[in-house]
Amino acid sequence: MRKYRELNADTKQRISQALKGRGLTDNHKQAISDGMRAYWATIPNKSGRTNNEEEKQPIY
Question: Whole-model pTM above 0.70?
Fold first, then answer.
């Protein structure tokens, strides 16, 4: 059981090597995409406009 959030460099390297070359299923990729879309929909734009308002603005 982990006691701390931080990992030492050796452990990070071992985890990185173990995960290299793994692929994701199409369902997993879609779930990640859906989750990121939902996440970014909750983050307001700096200008305060919604995404729909930005799409209506002409690009010059």
Answer: no
**Closest listed residue to residue 28, CA positions, set 36, 20, 19:** 36
pLDDT tens-digit series, residues 12-33: 999 999 999 999 999 999 999 9
Rounded distance between C-alpha atoms, residue 19 and residue 12, angstroms: 11
How far apart are the C-alpha atoms of 57 and 45, rounded to whole Å? 15
Q: Is 25 helix (H, G, I), strand (E, B) or coil?
A: coil
> Quick one: the chain helix, strand, coil %, rounded to 5?
55, 0, 45
